[in-house]
């Protein structure tokens, strides 16, 4: 790459800060909105008529956890689209969570997505998310909440009480993982909603009379960091897929002065549990927005025929201790470029045309790229790519940055990869024709 190392370092430090401040999809979308508004993007309300200006910059959020940002250019050039997802595997607090056992307060949790559970033990955990409450005027309101400090812990069972732990310990998600929050007096009981009211007051929300509902999850208080003897790795919870959301957003912003075709960034919620929701990729959100932007079914059909979406999700980097889990000729390495994800049975939506287009973009940007095909005797995961392709009929490419520990509470990616993908996506957004 022609850029100096200081640009890459600056990019990754900003990425680290974004990850640290985005413990839930709600916080991620809030932070993306703040960044987009700094660059002239204006919020649209789905319940109102839109009056879009030529070359206008807009964004739409739904449920505070999904976002679509776009520029209003010449639709006949087609849309240049990048997609990701805001959600990630975690432990969500159940509606009636209080567990009082042996004078400890624990919270019952539900596993969201395909979480790797063992790494959640013995970590300093906090709580964040969204809370709905009744204010002093009797109105229903909501607020984001973030304890920030460590307030919970899931202790492992000592090896003295489980001598086979290193050989065959399994995790029961119902009984083994309720986090411990505090000790209580002998007859003391805790009310979690009352505790939330206290926390809201601590965060400056003082008009709460009663907490009604919430969507809260636990997260790792050990924030994102750059590690490695050569600062070559970034580690964090939620790299899958806030990493791609951030890279796509910054590429779009940096391409604003160089793109004549309309650009679209879509970051959906609920990918980790199947995407079939009002805010997920298998729902109508993106198609509805594009239809309103294009103005008619005919105009949208013409635009889609000239469009392409790059679905940017994470890919499995070859683990040096488990290299046999990869197909022999397709073993992506961290810091060796984005991965073209290919599956003959359409678990990924890439085809030869979209792969060739991405390869050309990488060559123009001086960036590396790699391939991933899962072993034929292993099941293949999927992304928002095939779902978006099926909903829109749009040319689609599935890519990802190689990652260790996907779906762990702490994942690892390469610092060079994130920066390079940003450069490639800038070129994609700026393409007059694709």
UniProtKB/TrEMBL annotation:
MF terms in GO: aminopeptidase activity; metallopeptidase activity; zinc ion binding
Pfam families on file: Peptidase_M18 (PF02127)
Keywords: Aminopeptidase, Hydrolase, Metal-binding, Metalloprotease, Protease, Zinc
EC number: 3.4.11.-
A biological process from GO: proteolysis
Cofactor(s) this protein requires: Zn(2+)
Root EC class: hydrolase
Gene3D superfamilies attached to this UniProt entry: Aminopeptidase i, Domain 2, Zn peptidases
Keyword hit for Metal-binding: yes
Keyword DNA damage in annotation: no
Cellular compartments per GO CC: cytoplasm
Similarity field: Belongs to the peptidase M18 family.
Protein's name in the database: M18 family aminopeptidase
Organism: Endozoicomonas montiporae
């Amino acid at each position: 790459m022609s850029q100096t190392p200081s640009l890459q370092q600056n990019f990754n430090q900003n990425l680290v800060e974004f990850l640290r401040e985005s413990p839930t999809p709600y916080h991620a979308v809030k932070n993306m909105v703040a960044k987009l508004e700094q660059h002239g993007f204006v919020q649209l309300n789905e319940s109102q008529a839109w009056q879009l200006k030529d070359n206008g910059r807009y964004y739409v959020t739904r449920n505070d956890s999904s976002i679509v940002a776009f520029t209003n250019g010449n639709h006949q050039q087609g849309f240049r689209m990048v997609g990701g997802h805001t959600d990630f595997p975690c432990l969500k607090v159940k509606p009636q969570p209080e567990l009082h056992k042996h004078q400890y307060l624990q919270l019952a949790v539900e596993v969201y997505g395909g979480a790797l559970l063992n790494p959640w033990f013995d970590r300093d955990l906090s709580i964040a998310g969204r809370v709905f409450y009744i204010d002093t005027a009797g109105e229903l309101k909501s607020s984001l909440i973030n304890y920030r400090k460590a307030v919970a812990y899931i202790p492992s069972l000592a090896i003295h009480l489980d001598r086979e732990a290193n050989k065959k310990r399994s995790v029961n998600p119902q009984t083994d993982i309720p986090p411990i929050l505090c000790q209580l007096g002998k007859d003391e009981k805790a009310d979690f909603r009352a505790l939330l009211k206290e926390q809201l007051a601590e965060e400056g929300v003082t008009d709460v009379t009663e907490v009604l509902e919430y969507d809260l999850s636990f997260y790792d208080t050990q924030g994102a960091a750059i590690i490695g003897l050569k600062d070559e790795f970034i580690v964090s919870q939620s790299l899958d897929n806030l990493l791609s959301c951030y890279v796509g957003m910054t590429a779009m912003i940096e391409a604003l002065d160089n793109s004549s075709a309309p650009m679209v960034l879509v970051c959906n919620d609920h990918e980790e549990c199947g995407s079939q929701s009002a805010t997920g990729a298998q729902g109508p959100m993106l198609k509805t927005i594009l239809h309103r932007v294009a103005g008619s079914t005919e105009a949208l059909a013409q635009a889609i025929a000239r469009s392409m979406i790059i679905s940017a999700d994470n890919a499995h980097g070859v683990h040096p201790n488990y290299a046999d889990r990869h197909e022999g000729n397709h073993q992506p390495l961290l810091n060796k470029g984005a991965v073209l994800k290919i599956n003959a049975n359409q678990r990924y939506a890439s085809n030869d045309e979209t792969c060739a287009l991405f390869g050309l973009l990488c060559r123009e940007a001086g960036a590396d790229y790699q391939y991933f095909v899962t072993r034929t005797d292993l099941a293949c995961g999927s992304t928002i790519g095939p779902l978006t392709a099926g909903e829109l009929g749009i040319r689609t490419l599935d890519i990802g940055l190689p990652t260790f520990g996907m779906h762990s509470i702490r994942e690892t990616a390469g610092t060079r990869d994130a920066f390079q993908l940003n450069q490639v996506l800038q070129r994609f957004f700026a393409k007059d024709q694709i």
